[in-house]
Design a protein that fits this description.
The structure holds two protein chains of two kinds. By secondary structure, chain A is of the alpha/beta class. Chain A folds into two domains: 176 residues, P-loop containing nucleotide triphosphate hydrolases (Rossmann fold, 3-Layer(aba) Sandwich); 66 residues, no CATH class. Chain A has ten helices and ten strands. In chain A, a hairpin with a 3-residue loop joins strand 4 and strand 5. In chain A, helix 4 packs across helix 5 and helix 4 runs parallel beside helix 6. Chain A is globular and about 55 Å long. The model of chain A has no long low-confidence stretch (mean pLDDT 89). Chain B is α/β, with parallel strands linked by helices. Chain B contains seven helices and twelve strands. In chain B, the strands form three sheets. In chain B, strands 1-9-8-5-4-2-3 form a seven-stranded mixed β-sheet. A three-stranded antiparallel β-sheet of chain B has the order 7-6-10. In chain B, strand 6 and strand 7 form a beta hairpin. In chain B, helix 1 crosses helix 2. The radius of gyration of chain B is 20 Å and the shape is globular. The two termini of chain B are 34 Å apart. The N terminus of chain B is likely disordered. Classes of the chains: A alpha/beta, B alpha/beta. At the A-B interface, helix 2, helix 4 and helix 5 of A face helix 5 of B.
């Protein structure tokens, strides 16, 4: 039996901001439908990794290859910026820690959800509105709030709205940077539950950056542990959390309050 | 761009004025005018594309038409006949002063007749009288960038233009329909020029947008503060944005013009007293006066002398 082709393949990727801080020699593969968590302390290079993989910054060394729908596994560095932007708008999603950074706050929830569809050329108002309503429903938000401004939503609702806005074009890969960090614990649990369900329903692949091992435990199939810009340990999430090998991972795991 | 090949412009309505010899012809110096013409040629070659130019300080404040005046100064020739309108009117302060300015620094004939003019400098309106080949309309533009409300960064909006990433523009129209039930944007209504560049047609009412499409005249747009010129060459396709189920429409009025009875022109609503009595009159004063002279009349015809 042949192994399925990865969606994303990262080899020897290095990006530093000043020659010291950043991430180095990152290797990993991401398969369709798989959730990968990147955990580590502040300054360990998690967010740099996310930015470099999603081509928001160009990696200084190594390669990032992505399985394009037409061409198969292609080095993203060879794509034009026009192709990259299109890819980012249609095939990828970006969920930011602060929902306000990822939403257009001056327009209604419906317009936020429909924006990506308009960007790829849908021009039927009624159709757009119906899709936006369906997504609100899927996100467990009252459809009656379709025309309300995101500013009138609670933090958890804003975060769910941001997720809907990203998923409306049915991307295959989603990048999430601390998606639950700014929410209180009960809202976090609900959002994680929703995310887990969406990931399995839509067959999404996701890279989730977090400093919260509970998020990794709940969402991720595999986990990378980063420290000082390098991956110190990687493997199945359960394996890493239950049997950590690297001293730093052992420290991380032992620092969680056991219930 | 003189009008030596257009004998029909000779019938100007106003007397010739004497040019003030202390100023160079057209106020700007020759190399500045050449720089502007170079930018305008590029603008005509790429319809709807905003070309940067070195905007000069003009003897009036930004917002009063410095962009339009510089464009007019760059293209005007001794044989041209100039018409200037502001809100459709030939006799508002701004229109009169710009007309007088050009009469003084160029000595060209000025007119209130759209037919007689070879150059029409305008703010807020396109004349109701159809334009024809050989005529040039110069628009005064406050903010040339249609994507500015979406994206505050100039480098980002330029990238969006380069890649034709215009999907976000529909967000504004979506929002209009969601909040008001119809597209409530009434002026500076975004258009796509030649199926490529997104353009702001300057603050003309959307009533005038259809006049931009396939117009035989050359349309030049100048933004003095923002240092940009752009153009719609003659017979260029200009399409107003819309949705399939909410097509583009122009303003409609329940009444006709009180003075000339026109139902086809853009009407201004005028409040007459504290009881809310109101009346609609043509915003294009020349068009209205022409119709009255030709014997057309509205409900209030004769109350005022046109």
């Amino acid at each position: 039996m042949t192994a399925p082709a990865p969606l994303l393949s990262v080899r020897g990727m290095t990006h530093t901001w000043d020659g010291i801080h950043g991430c180095r020699d990152i290797d990993f593969d991401l398969y369709p439908g798989e959730v990968l968590c990147v955990v580590g302390e502040s300054g360990s290079g998690k967010s740099t990794l996310l930015q470099a993989v999603s081509c928001q910054v160009a990696p200084q060394a190594g390669s990032v290859r992505y399985d394009l729908r037409e061409e198969g596994l292609t080095d993203l560095a060879t794509l034009s910026s026009a192709r990259l932007r299109l890819l980012a708008r249609t095939d990828w999603g970006f969920v930011r820690q602060n929902a306000r950074d990822g939403l257009r706050m001056q327009v209604s929830a419906g317009a936020n959800i429909a924006e990506r569809l308009m960007a790829v050329g849908q021009r039927h108002y009624g159709g757009l509105r119906e899709v936006a309503g369906n997504w609100l429903h899927k996100m467990e938000i009252d459809v009656g709030r379709l025309d309300d401004a995101p500013a009138s939503f609670s933090g958890g609702m804003q975060q769910r709205l941001q997720i809907a806005r990203n998923l409306v074009t049915h991307p295959r890969m989603v990048f999430m940077d601390e998606p639950t960090a700014s929410l209180d614990v009960s809202v976090q649990a609900r959002l994680l539950d929703l995310l887990r369900q969406l990931v399995s329903d839509l067959g999404l692949a996701a890279i989730v950056v977090t400093h919260d091992l509970a998020v990794a435990r709940l969402l991720a199939h595999r986990t990378l542990v980063m420290r000082g810009g390098r991956v110190v340990e990687s493997g199945l999430t359960d394996q890493i959390l239950d049997d950590p090998q690297h001293p730093y991972t052992q420290l991380l795991v032992s620092s969680i309050l056991q219930s | 761009m003189t009008s030596t090949d257009m004998p029909s412009f000779a019938s100007a309505t106003q007397a010739e004025v004497v040019r003030d010899p202390h100023y160079n012809f057209g106020y700007l110096d020759e190399s500045t005018k050449r720089m502007l013409r170079r930018a305008l040629l590029k603008a005509v070659a790429i319809p709807g594309y905003q070309v940067p130019f070195g905007s000069r300080e003009m003897p009036l404040p930004y917002g009063w038409g410095t962009g339009g005046i510089q464009v007019t100064a760059a293209i005007i020739g001794a044989g041209d006949v100039l018409k200037v309108i502001d809100q459709g009117s030939d006799d508002t302060t701004n229109a009169i002063n710009i007309r007088r300015f050009f009469a003084r620094v160029t000595g060209v004939r000025t007119t209130e007749s759209t037919r007689a003019a070879s150059i029409v400098q305008t703010r807020h309106r396109i004349p109701e009288t159809p334009l024809r080949e050989g005529q040039i309309v110069v628009f005064q533009v406050p903010i040339p960038e249609p994507l500015r409300w979406l994206e505050p960064s100039e480098t980002e909006t330029r990238t969006m233009h380069a890649l034709a990433e215009y999907g976000g523009m529909h967000v504004k129209l979506y929002e209009d329909i969601a909040q008001h039930g119809h597209i409530a944007t009434t002026y500076d209504y975004p258009v796509v020029v030649n199926e490529r560049y997104m353009m702001r047609p300057s603050p003309i009412p959307k009533f005038d947008n259809p006049k931009l499409d396939n117009n035989p005249a050359l349309m030049l747009f100048g933004a003095g503060r923002e240092k940009r010129v752009y153009a719609v060459p003659p017979y260029t396709r200009v399409k107003s944005l819309d949705f399939q189920d909410h097509p583009f429409t122009v303003e409609k009025w329940s009444d006709c013009c009180a003075l000339c009875g026109s139902r086809d022109s853009y009407l201004d609503e005028i409040i007459l007293d504290d009881q809310g009595t109101r009346r609609f009159v043509c915003s294009d004063t020349e068009y209205c006066a022409d119709r009255q002279a030709a014997g057309h009349g509205g409900p209030a015809a004769g109350e005022y002398t046109a």
